[in-house]
Design a protein that fits this description.
Shape: flat
Number of strands: 9
Pfam families: HTH_18, Response_reg
GO biological process, one term: phosphorelay signal transduction system
InterPro entries: CheY-like_superfamily, Homeodomain-like_sf, HTH_AraC, HTH_AraC-typ_CS, Sig_transdc_resp-reg_receiver, Tscrpt_reg_AraC-type_HTH
Helix content: 40-55%
Largest sheet: 5 strands, parallel
Number of helices: 18
CATH class of the largest domain: Alpha Beta
Keywords: DNA-binding, Phosphoprotein, Transcription, Transcription regulation
Strand order of the largest sheet: 2-1-3-4-5
Protein name: DNA-binding response regulator
Number of domains: 3
Length: about 425
C-alpha cells in the first residue's frame, strides 16, 4: 500500500528535487501533487485526501504552520512534516502545538528524511491495521445483528450506514441471497469453507464498491448474504452467478445460487429471512415492514428500568446480563464476550448508548441493589457488600458514601 504524499514549497526547484531524488516508492509513499503555497494546500485538502503533507514553513500567503493548524482544526487524518531553514524555538513550539509529526531543517539531510518517513510509514501502517480491525469488528457486529439477533430493522440499518454511508437500507433496495456449496468427494473441509465464504464476501466489492454486502457467520452451507444497494442494479444476479461459476471452474466445489430475492427495504427483507431461519421475526420488525421505520429511543439507564426500546439490541442484552449477574465478578471484557463484541468497540458502544462508562454503570446497578437490601432485609453490612459483588468491605463503604453522601449504616437508619 502506497500512502499519498503532498509536497509544498514556494521554491520550484525544491519541489522538483524532493519529488525526483527521493525514492518515495521504496519508502511506501506516492507523490500525488506538488504545490507552492499553504493557501493552495488548504484549498487542495478541502477537496482531496492525502496521508502526509511535507511542507515548507515560511511561504508567501499561508505558512506550513497554517496548514498544520487547518488540519488539526478539521481533524483530518493527515500527518505533517515541516521543512525550514530557521532554527527558531518559537516555530518549533508552534509546530508542536499543531501536532506536527516531525521537523526537518534545510538544507535537508537525506538520511534524516529517510529516517523520518520510515517512521511515518510504520505509524501509518499501525493506524491502518487498527482501522481495519475496527471495521472488521463493526462488520461482525452488524452481521451478528442481521443474521443472529431479533434486533429491529432500524437499529441494524444504523450500523449498516456506519459501514457504508452511500446506502440507506430502510428506503432503498436490498437483496437476500442463499448459496449452497457441495463437493462430490464428501463433506467440506475447513479450507473449502474458508475459500467459499471469502469469495462470497468479496462478490460485490470488485464491480460495485458502493454496495454493502454482509455474510452470515455460519460454518456450513447454505450461506445467506444481504446486499444493500444505493440504486437498483439489474447486473446483480448475473454478477453473483459469474462469481460462483469462477469458483466452480477452478476448484472441486460446486456453488449454486439457490435463492435470490429483492426487497424494497431492509425491514421487509428481515421478515422473510426470519420466517425461514430459526430466529423468528420480532413484532417490531413486522410493524416496521407494515408501516415503515418509526422513531424509537430505547432508554437503558438502570434508574429508568426500561428495556423496551426497539433498538440498541446488543446494549439491551448487556444491560440484562449485568442486571442478572451484578453480584458476580463482572468485567467489561466478560460482558463484551456475552454479546460477541470486541471489548474496545463494546466499551465505545456502551458509552454512546447509555451516556455512562461501563464501570460507572456497574457501580450504579450494584448500589441500587445494595440500597434495596439495606431498606428491606436484616442482612449485615458485610453480607450486603458480598451479595452485590464487592469483596472489600472498606472499599464498599467508601464507594457508597461517595455516591450516596452517607454510609450504608446511616442510609439504613434513615430508611
Amino acid at each position: 500500500m502506497k500512502y499519498r504524499l503532498l509536497i509544498v514549497d514556494d521554491e520550484r526547484e525544491v519541489r522538483e528535487v524532493l519529488s525526483e531524488i527521493v525514492d518515495w516508492s521504496e519508502l511506501g509513499f506516492e507523490v500525488v501533487q506538488t504545490l507552492k503555497d499553504g493557501r493552495d494546500t488548504i484549498a487542495y485538502l478541502e477537496q482531496q485526501l492525502v496521508d502526509v503533507v511535507l511542507s515548507d514553513i515560511k511561504m508567501t500567503f499561508e505558512s506550513g504552520i497554517d496548514v498544520a493548524r487547518f488540519i488539526k482544526e478539521r481533524q483530518l487524518p493527515v500527518k505533517v512534516v515541516l521543512l525550514s531553514g530557521y532554527q527558531e524555538f518559537q516555530l518549533a513550539q508552534e509546530a508542536i502545538r499543531n501536532d506536527v509529526s516531525d521537523y526537518l531543517l534545510k538544507p535537508t539531510d537525506l538520511d534524516e528524511l529517510y529516517r523520518v518517513f520510515r517512521n511515518l510509514k510504520r505509524e501509518l501502517d499501525a493506524g491502518a491495521a487498527v482501522k481495519q480491525s475496527e471495521r472488521q469488528d463493526r462488520e461482525r457486529f452488524a452481521s451478528y445483528l442481521l443474521f443472529q439477533s431479533d434486533a429491529a430493522a432500524e437499529e441494524i440499518a444504523r450500523h449498516l450506514e456506519q459501514l457504508n454511508a452511500a446506502v440507506d437500507p430502510m428506503r432503498e433496495p436490498c437483496a437476500l441471497l442463499e448459496v449452497t456449496v457441495t463437493k462430490d468427494s464428501g463433506g467440506l473441509s475447513r479450507a473449502d469453507v474458508a475459500s467459499s465464504k471469502k469469495l462470497l464476501a468479496n462478490m460485490a466489492a470488485g464491480q460495485f464498491p458502493s454496495w454493502l454486502m454482509l455474510l452470515d457467520e455460519r460454518e456450513q452451507p447454505p450461506y445467506y448474504a444481504v446486499i444493500c444497494m444505493p440504486t437498483e442494479q439489474q447486473q446483480l444476479y448475473d454478477q453473483m452467478q459469474n462469481s460462483l461459476q469462477r469458483l466452480n471452474n477452478i476448484t472441486a466445489l460446486k456453488a449454486q445460487l439457490v435463492g435470490f430475492q429483492r426487497f424494497d427495504n431492509l425491514a421487509t427483507l428481515l421478515v422473510e429471512y426470519r420466517s425461514r431461519d430459526p430466529l423468528s421475526a420480532s413484532s417490531d420488525v413486522k410493524q416496521e415492514a407494515a408501516v415503515g421505520p418509526q422513531r424509537r429511543d430505547g432508554d437503558v439507564s438502570p434508574s429508568s428500568g426500561s428495556q423496551s426500546g426497539g433498538g440498541k439490541w446488543a446494549i439491551r442484552q448487556a444491560v440484562a446480563y449485568i442486571e442478572e449477574h451484578y453480584h458476580k465478578n463482572l468485567s467489561l471484557e466478560l460482558v463484551a464476550g456475552q454479546v460477541h463484541l470486541n471489548p474496545v468497540y463494546f466499551g465505545q458502544l456502551f458509552k454512546n448508548e447509555t451516556n455512562q462508562n461501563f464501570s460507572d454503570y456497574l457501580v450504579e446497578v450494584r448500589l441500587k441493589h445494595a440500597k434495596e437490601l439495606l431498606r428491606s432485609t436484616p442482612f449485615k453490612i458485610y453480607e450486603i457488600c458480598d451479595k452485590v459483588g464487592y469483596k472489600d468491605l472498606k472499599y464498599f463503604y467508601k464507594l457508597f458514601k461517595k455516591h450516596e453522601g452517607v454510609t450504608p449504616s446511616e442510609y439504613r437508619d434513615r430508611s
